[in-house]
Amino acid sequence: MKLYYAPGACSLADHIAMAEAGLPYTLEKVDLEEKRTETGSDYTTINPKGYVPALALGDGTILTENIAILSYLADQSEKIAASPDNRWKLLETIAFISTEVHKGFKPFFMPDSTDEAKKAAGDNLARRFAYLETQLAERDYIVSDSFTSADCYLFVMLMWAQKKARLPLPDALTRYFDRLTQRPSIRQALSEEGLD
Ligand SMILES: N[C@@H](CCC(=O)N[C@@H](CS)C(=O)NCC(=O)O)C(=O)O
Q1: What HEC string does 91-145 produce?
Q2: What are 85-128's pLDDT values in tens digits?
Q3: 118, exposed or middle or buried, with CB in 10 Å at 0-12, 13-18, 19+?
Q4: Which residue's alpha carbon is nearest to atom 20 within ligand 1?
Q5: What percent of the chain has pLDDT over 70?
Q6: pLDDT at 118
Q7: What mean pLDDT comes out for the span 137-157?
């Protein structure tokens, strides 16, 4: 499999998931402004949507969208899958992170965002983080007591909250983030993206 990624972007979640699962993968960096890959390809010919992530499965299929990629990867390895009972909870959580948290960061990445827009986005994200904190009070990881691909995604969101948006996090989420930072797969992925 080949992951098209940009350092520190949401594609880091898929990168971590592959590393945690021990799946064989290669990486190709994408310049999101130029829409060029590091080997000189026009990225829009690979993913016409123009954004990362895109995962080339090796049979000619290009899979896009974090919800689909993180679900696909969980299907490839028990190491990042939920138990059968929690399969739909895993999808629910990935969808929540994608649509309610990931998209909530948009004003922090738009150069023309006003301070009011950032404040409203920060307030909205704080409500999402408060909900996630309640979930972590009941279990070790965000879906269950075992690590899943949803944790890979939430890790990236918490990294953005602290490093890009400078948002305060509930203590339980800070502790969870610090715990995840120690995982070899996360250290490996950060290092491979030049972020350590
Ligand atoms: N719906 C997509 C959104 C992906 C996305 O927001 N990618 C960002 C990086 S985190 C990106 O590539 N932005 C550059 C652009 O849109 O041109 C998904 O969940 O995979």
Answers
A1: HHHHHHHHHHHHHHHHHHHCCCCCHHHHHHHHHHHHHHHHHHHHHHCCCCCCCCC
A2: 999 999 999 999 999 999 999 999 999 999 999 999 999 999 99
A3: middle
A4: 65
A5: 100
A6: 97
A7: 97
The token pair at 63 is: 């899979």
Q: Is 48 in the pocket of ligand 1 (CB under 6 A)?
A: no
Distance 51 CA to ligand 1 centre (A): 5
CATH number for the segment(s) 82-183? 1.20.1050.10
Question: Has residue 161 got a pLDDT over 90?
Answer: yes
Q: Which two tokens stand for residue 41?
A: 């390809």
- The alpha carbon of 64 and the centre of ligand 1 are apart by a number of angstroms equal to 10
2-77+186-192: CATH topology: Glutaredoxin (3.40.30)
Spell out the domain ranges in the chain: 2-77+186-192, 82-183
- Predicted confidence (pLDDT) per residue in 45-65, tens digit: 999 999 999 999 999 999 999
Ligand 1: residue whose CA is nearest its atom 3: 65
Residue nearest to atom 17 of ligand 1 (CA): 51
Query: What is the Cα gyration radius of the chain?
Result: 16
